[in-house]
Amino acid sequence: MMNHIRNFSIIAHIDHGKSTLADRMIQLCDLVTAREFKDQLLDTMDIERERGITIKSQTICLPYTARDGNTYALNLVDTPGHVDFSYEVSRALASCEGALLLVDAAQGVEAQTLANLYLAMENDLVVIPVINKIDLPSAEPERVTFQIEEDLGLEADLIQMCSAKNGTGVAEILEAIVTHLPPPKGSIDAPLQARIFDATYDSYRGTVISCRIINGSVKQGDQIVLMSTGASHRVEEVGLFRLRKEPCKQLSAGEVGYILAGIKSVGDAKPGDTITLRDRPCAVPLAGFREVLPVVFSSLYPIAADDYEDLVAALEKLQLNDAALSFQKDSSAALGFGFRCGFLGLLHLEVVQERLEREFDISLILTVPSVRYRFTLTDQTEIMVDNPAHFPDPSKIARTEEPYIKASILIPERYMGAVMNLCMERRGENTNYHYPTPGRIEFTCELPLGEVIYDFYDRLKSITQGYGSFDYELLDYRSSDLVKLDILVNGEVVDALSQLVHRSNARERGLSACEQLKEEIPRQMFKIAIQAAIGTTIIARTNVSALRKDVTAKCYGGDITRKRKLLEKQKAGKKRMKTVGNVEIPQSAFLSVLKRD
Ligand code: GTP
Predict the structure, then answer these.
(1) What ipTM is given for this predicted complex?
(2) 213 and 307 within one domain
(3) How far is the CA of 536 from the centre of ligand 1 (A)?
(4) Considering the entire predicted model, what is its pTM?
(5) Which of 9, 165, 173, 469 to probe ligand 1 with, by most ligand atoms within 8 A of CB?
């Protein structure tokens, strides 16, 4: 009965309480006993829990008996909560009829609230605004109501107030979902059209496709076709998302559920793709599909060379569940064998790095992240380069282009000057602003993506004392003037420290890399020269002076266990060092080059 289904998402800025609200709803719908109820049920990965950021979405079907006496199936389609994943968010929203727009009563509307609202509007969703955290002493529900009404143009009489933390107002939200969100449309008798919005990997069952059935139905034994590739698979099981997967006979138009069809890799079930039946295909795929491509690239090297095999296995394992992660073999004279990896953004990169180090216990060195540049050579061939090692011979480059984004930054008015300066420093163009609310500015600016992937977000947070919020979309490629900046330690190029930079930044970048390395490289028995160069021209230089006396000498002798402990400790320290030429460079030195002050 489609009338008794409601499909919705919760959209919010990070930390406004999405997971907490979702958990409250689950609790109210009696899916779990109190004993089973763990905080933040929906976020399962450790890192998600620790950072409080939803990376992978999890969806749940809640049976809800409304005040009209009917039982409804409320499908909460969870969305990832970060700008790097906005395409996934848009595919999840396309699978819903409505959305709860959650706004923190103390923080008010943020850049991501706006960005997500636009995504919801593009998908013609009915939006119910929800003001959360009304229990906070600093809550200002009236001010936020005004923002929602005046600036977002949403209806004030739809606004729900709640505290996801103590449960106030959550029952009313469930009721509002039933009353105000439309039931799904679609025809059960039409040929199958199902939209994939997520895929996860189960080691026993293979890829679990999360999908919304738009038209038709699908059941065990059907031969399905994934329309973007034409690949065909036999359905092993279909079912609903409860706390665990719950098999059912069939999924029909309007429903949200999962399909198991022996698909080996999540990469074969692409978000936005349409599933149909081989024997009775639909005429056209659903609109809005596109391939998600990595935009940030970095090479990963194990610190201990014998961790290489483990790194291969770990990356393969991560990729099972993270189709957006791409990697291929790479090698460095300084660091040995590693992998060139592609990520959706910097946060994605950090999450992968942390998982490798924490879950797989592999210490890594990352190279400076890079975007993908386009070079047109003098013979008119075009090449894409995301690795400084592949920088073409400068005399053969006819044209260089780099990717640009449109950044949207929401700040209190008083930070306007500082933010404007930051954007100018990063080669911003076409700046613009308007006042979505009195005292707050939405500042838009076109920026080279390469300038943003370093520390832009951290800098923005610090110059706005945490008040600035940021969102972006990719625009296009524009003409640029790039050089390859090399770092030399004792006269030897450390290839893993090379970066592609805009000519105007080269000196400043080179100097800061030299300064950072000087801080990080421990003094050794001889003087170490650190230089930055473009081609054969040295543009910056520092020295690490030699040790004056042997401080380790007095540690030896004495009790044997103490000695052993010391050796162990040294060995652990060594693991985090990499020898380049005759110089030992610690892992932290490689990382420090990524940060600028
Ligand atoms: P992402 O997963 O990053 O999207 O964050 P989220 O929006 O899911 O936020 P989450 O539910 O993790 O909540 C963020 C923080 O706000 C947590 O520390 C919660 O305990 C707290 N929080 C959530 N709801 C409320 C509320 O109603 N009142 C108060 N005081 N705190 C809340």
Answers:
(1) 0.97
(2) no
(3) 53
(4) 0.75
(5) 165
